[in-house]
Amino acid sequence: MKKIISMISTLALVLSFSAACGTKTTPTTPSSTAAPTTAPSATTGGKFAAIAKGDIKVGVIHIGNPADGSGYTYAHDQGIVAMQKELGLADNQIIRKNNVNDTDPTATETAVRECIEEGANVIFATSWGYMDTMEALAEEYPEIIFSHGTGYKSNGTNMNNYFGRIYQARYLSGIVAGMKTESNLIGFVAAMGQDNSEVTGGINAFAMGVYSVNPDAKVYVKVTNSWYSPSEETNAAKALLAEGCDVIAQHVDTPNPQLEAEKAGVFGIGYNSDMSKDAPKATLTSAVWNWGAYYTWAVEKLIDGTWEGENYYGGMKEEMVDISPLNESIVAPGTKEAVEKARATILDGTFNVFDGVIETNDGKTVGEAGKTLDDGTITGKINWYFKTVTLK
């Protein structure tokens, strides 16, 4: 996803767990996107000289507008706000470029170059489609840090990528949905199809969470083919409701699927931010991001002179991802206990979601007994659906 991500709590989330936004974390590097190793500078400890806090300027490229107050861009921007507060940066040290179409390389290049002209020494680009342009400009401007949210490209020096184990939160949210459904039909509005591992992996983790508590439930997927399309997200939700789905989950930017669920008198699982503020009668919980965990970590490294160019892949342990507080008034009885039991196994490492042999919806299997899928496979090679998933 980004958007891939997931990314990558916004789980202490300013959105719903505000205490953790200032948490300093230790990243891990996915095997499929490992940055080349280069000896750090003997004088700075990193690959770039330290930048005085007062001289830091942070550019941010957003696919939407954080003023919308919900969804993907809002979650990222709340992470920037948390970083700014944690590190004590002034407002004029943050350069935002909003509503930059990630399918338009010219628009992306223009936004990045404007950040550079305005003095940015680090640029965070938050959507999948910015990746190739970031890669090209990183080569042109080796003195500037290019940090790309989701995707997989990096050069080990001045361009890295960052995301998170959002599939962990997806699994927990699947438990919530599986315990709530009465029709045993759960809808999922997806930005991209089976070829996008970020989205597909999230759907599978969600469906596996559903299956763990309700093996009779099915997950119907409707694809919008857009990271951000309010009208298509609405239409997809309506189509899934017409199929009889009584819980609507999503991997899209706006709260529109949650709003449609509320209008229909059914329930939903939000994404990116806590969408119970948008649809309080419908949203059971949301899979959420604490992007501030990464942004704080990254900018601190520039200030300290310890930037190494490594990729970042944080999970629940690092407080990068989580689910928002359960909507206790509408979740099924026993949901909290079931979620906490699964959470404990994820945190202590005895369960990794994609463990063992996994059955797909075309009668095949992936994985091996006693093993778990590696990070490279999870981030780039999940191009199959779990056995209870149907594409609509």
Automatic annotation (TrEMBL):
List GO terms (cellular component aspect): plasma membrane
Q: Does the keyword Protein transport apply?
A: no
* Alphabetized UniProt keyword annotations: Signal
Which segment of the chain is annotated as a signal peptide? 1-21
Coiled-coil boundaries: none
**Organism, as annotated:** Youngiibacter fragilis 232.1
Protein name in UniProt = Membrane protein
Asked whether the keyword Transmembrane is assigned, the reply is: no
Q: Domain of life of the organism in this record?
A: Bacteria
Which Pfam family, giving just one, matches this sequence? Bmp
**Boundaries of every ABC transporter substrate-binding protein PnrA-like domain copy:** 63-343
Gene3D superfamilies xref list:
3.40.50.2300
Which PANTHER family does the UniProt record give?
ABC TRANSPORTER SUBSTRATE-BINDING PROTEIN
